[in-house]
Specification:
Blueprint (H helix, E strand, L loop, with lengths): L5 H4 L5 H10 L1 E5 L5 H11 L3 E5 L24 H12 L4 E5 L8 H6 L3 E4 L4 H14 L2 E8 L2 E8 L5 H4 L10 H4 L3 H20 L8 E6 L4 E6 L13 E2 L9 E4 L15 E2 L14 E4 L4 H12 L5 E4 L5
Parallel strand pairs: 1-2, 1-4, 2-3, 4-5, 9-13, 10-11, 10-12, 12-13
Antiparallel strand pairs: 5-6, 6-7, 7-8
């Protein structure tokens, strides 16, 4: 009988010792969508012994063109559970744990602590920063990727390399989405495959390590780029934290950056509703917790207030993907 992993074990980079490393590995995958689908398939196929999946979403028909892990029969099912069942059907020798829930700020440290490596497939910048903070604190490697349209990147952070915050200390002014900007299924598979390959390289201990490297891909022109960032310094001073709603304290000043048309009801009944141009009205002396839909406006506003001398600022994470 042919060994399940014979074709990779013949590689000198793997062999029986490498296969044993994969079997003993515990990997946390946040997001079982476009990136998570190829990532999970590759890791399960390679024999990674323990996979933990966290995803709050359900399978929709519009997912199927870029998420081949799912079938029409999975429509309406939680992605984490459908992914678990598909992976175990393909490889019943591994363990797969499904958590059909949204990643929570307070949950991240515990989830990371139970893993040897974390894969950020959530398509949420807030989730990326939260995972990077937890991985950096615990010395765990984080492989993060993003794809939109026909381009994207994959990079390996923390675990001895600089954090995501070190490389990207500030959030962009705006980000697109697959729903609004579109995405090609093959582009997602290429980036997810690259992300999965980086993870396997780290688990196998191959040299050179992808830690401290970011690879960019433009599939419109079939061009690959990127850069190394091993020498990048971590940001000075305390990082702006993301906090959960239940961690708000009575003395906090909550600033709602969403207008009435976007959020008819503010995040808390006593929240101060301000636009970005009205931040001068924020009084000093309290912790200021800023809120918006994605976290991007709130993060940039928090950075601005910190630069203006507000000593305690945080971002209220409403959605971590």
């Amino acid at each position: 009988m042919t060994h399940r992993y014979a074709r990779q074990m013949v590689l000198p980079e793997v062999g029986p010792p490498g296969q044993a490393k994969l079997a003993a590995a515990r990997v946390l995958v946040i997001g079982a969508g476009g990136l998570g689908s190829p990532v999970l398939t590759l890791l399960a196929g390679a024999g990674v012994g323990h996979l933990a999946i966290v995803d709050h979403d359900r399978v929709e028909e519009s997912n199927l063109h870029r998420q081949p892990l799912y079938r029409m029969s999975d429509l309406g099912r939680p992605k984490a559970e459908a992914a678990r069942d598909a992976l175990l059907a393909a490889n019943p020798t591994i363990t797969v744990v499904a958590r059909a829930a949204r990643l929570g700020v307070a949950d991240a440290p515990g989830l990371v602590a139970d893993a040897d490596l974390v894969l950020d497939c959530a398509d949420s910048l807030a989730a990326t920063y939260v995972l990077s903070d937890a991985c950096h604190d615990q010395g765990k490697p984080l492989v993060s990727a993003s794809v939109l349209g026909l381009s994207g990147y994959a990079g390996a952070f923390c675990g001895g390399a600089p954090s995501y915050r070190a490389v990207f200390p500030d959030m962009p002014a705006a980000v697109g989405s697959c729903a609004a900007n579109g995405v090609l299924g093959s582009a997602v598979s290429v980036l997810g495959g690259l992300q999965g390959h980086m993870a396997l390289q780290i688990l196998l201990g191959l040299a050179p390590s992808p830690l401290g490297r970011l690879v960019s891909v433009d599939l419109r022109t079939l061009a690959f780029g990127g850069f190394a960032f091993l020498d990048t310094m971590e940001p000075d001073g305390p990082a702006i934290p993301f906090v959960a709603r239940h961690s708000l304290a009575p003395g906090d000043l909550v600033v709602e950056l969403r207008g009435v048309e976007e959020a008819p009801h503010p995040v808390t009944v006593d929240a101060l509703r301000l636009s970005h141009d009205q931040l001068d009205a924020v009084p000093a002396g309290k912790r200021v917790v800023l809120c918006c839909a994605s976290g991007i406006r709130a993060y940039r506003a928090a950075r601005l207030l910190a630069e203006r001398g507000v000593h305690s600022v945080a971002v209220l994470a409403l959605s971590l993907g």
